[in-house]
Design a protein that fits this description.
By secondary structure, the chain is an alpha/beta fold. Among the domains are: 179 residues, NADH-ubiquinone oxidoreductase 51kDa subunit (Rossmann fold, 3-Layer(aba) Sandwich); 93 residues, no CATH class. The protein is 28% helix and 19% strand. The protein has 14 helices and 18 strands. The longest helix has 15 residues. It is globular, with a radius of gyration of 22 Å. The two termini are 24 Å apart.
Length: 464
């Protein structure tokens, strides 16, 4: 089978402090749940309950105020005892309901009837998915309905692309989902394809996960005919939208198959879609990779949204020693916990929390694990080695942009180049001087409309 990948740049790396793909662990149910009102790309959701109310598992807590918002549901039954607020990064505020566990469960441990969905219209499917509060379960948390709708007017042909690409070791929760819940991932893909009004489904699987791809393909073909397995590269950032589209357009040219507009979705979203449509279950839990150098037993944990990060680490045996740094997401692109109390350990899991880590050393010390880079003291000057240019998948000059921004500030003439950066952080990972290249470039990047379209970028890649 041919392997399709993006043309240049990128890195291959491992992080031994991340969990393995062996199996998942079911987290204990928290006695206190902290449920944020902002778990999506829009503004804070508007509460429909208040302090003192008794609520049921899965009950609606808040509705969105704008198109970027999503419904928020109760992960556990109980009483709302207070509200809680904290500052996020970048400068935003979040608020949360604090729920004290009480009462019985409406969903947990009970067999539920599966509702047939094949006769439901795409419009109704999108409504069911939206009512379940499903968002893209990484990044900014864009509502899934928006992802489906935005492609409807682009082309008559659409292809739903399932991103089973694990180029970052901290994406292990999705890998475990694919292995433990292949039928649900496949069924969710079929539902999502109908909701997106897509003509076909592609499982894009990295070449180091061939067996996973075969299992998903077999499950999907039991349900749909127009399903294809495409093998793509495993070099980071292959999972990115731009890099994934470059790979699939190469497949399109090779096979002469017309893919039309590509709708990208991940395994976590597909399982949530399956639950929402066939079980009428809102998004109240998710698989999370829990690890880091300070953690005793890294693991993939199936946890309720609203569970505090400190409890997740307890689920994994606690700490070897007190962590210096607690973060969310990948150690390559993650963020520091925003909540200041207990070093961020009280910050809750949200819909977009795919990984959490606790480091016993300095922030992002994983950089020392890149084998071909010898790092010097953090913050030293650029030595003009050119490694950042070599690994940039977009073909930018990160050190040059960084120097311009740190010496002269934002320059309108550089807005075009700044907008091209999509924040993969490959440049930071290989920089011997450990300069915050990507952080500065993206941090100073204003909202501009000068970036080339994806089609233009792909066209450039094809002519190289």
């Amino acid at each position: 089978m041919d392997t399709y990948k993006f043309s240049r740049g990128g890195i291959s790396f491992e992080d031994p402090t991340a969990p393995t793909t062996d199996k998942s662990v079911l987290a204990f149910l928290p006695s206190i749940s902290v449920v944020p009102l902002k778990q999506h790309s829009g503004s804070l959701a508007s509460p429909v309950v208040r302090v003192g109310d008794t609520i049921h598992e899965g009950e609606l807590l808040a509705r969105p105020q704008d198109p970027g918002g999503a419904d928020i549901h109760a992960p556990i039954p109980g009483e709302i005892v207070q509200t809680y607020g904290w500052d996020m990064q970048p400068a935003q505020k979040n608020e949360a309901f604090v729920i004290k566990f009480k009462g019985g469960f409406e969903i947990l441990g009970k067999k539920r009837e599966e509702f047939p969905w094949r006769d439901i219209s795409p419009f109704k499917l999108r409504a069911l998915i939206n009512e379940a509060g499903i968002v893209e379960m990484s990044g900014s948390g864009r509502p899934l309905q928006n992802l489906f709708v935005e492609k409807l007017g682009e082309e008559r042909t659409r292809t739903l692309t399932v991103r089973c690409v694990f180029d970052d070791p901290w994406l292990v929760a999705d890998a475990v989902l694919c292995r433990e819940h292949a039928p649900q991932v496949a069924e969710g893909a079929c539902i999502a394809a109908r909701a997106a009004e897509a003509d076909r489904i592609i499982f894009a699987v990295s070449k180091n996960r061939k067996e996973t791809g075969k299992v998903l393909l077999e499950e999907a073909k039991k349900r749909e005919r127009s399903v294809t397995l495409v093998q793509v590269g495993s070099r980071y950032p292959q999972r990115g939208r731009r890099e994934m589209e470059i790979a699939l357009r190469k497949y399109e040219r090779k096979t002469l198959e017309s893919l039309g507009a590509l709708v990208f979705i991940g395994p976590a979203e597909l399982v949530a879609v399956y639950d929402a449509v066939t079980l009428r279950k809102p998004l109240i839990s998710r698989y999370i990779a829990v690890g880091g150098s300070a953690v005793q037993h890294p693991a993939v944990v199936n946890a309720r949204i609203g569970m505090r990060v400190g409890e997740l680490f307890q689920q994994c045996g606690g700490f070897k020693k007190e962590p210096e740094y607690v973060g969310f997401g990948s150690t390559l692109r993650g963020r520091k916990a925003s909540s200041p109390d207990l070093n961020g350990l009280n910050e809750p899991v949200t819909k977009t929390t795919y990984a959490v880590f606790a480091e016993s050393a300095a922030p992002f010390s994983f950089l020392k694990k890149i084998p071909f880079v010898k790092h010097s003291r953090p913050g030293t000057s650029c030595i003009n080695c050119g490694l950042c240019r070599t690994v940039c998948p977009v073909g930018l000059d990160p050190d040059g942009i960084y120097k311009r921004l740190t010496t002269s500030g934002y320059d309108e003439a550089y807005s075009y180049l700044i907008a091209e950066c999509h924040g993969c952080a490959c440049c930071e990972a290989v920089c011997p001087s450990r300069l915050p290249l990507c952080t500065v470039i993206k941090g100073l990047s204003p909202s501009v409309s000068t970036s080339r379209s994806v089609s233009e970028v792909i066209s450039m890649e094809q002519t190289r």
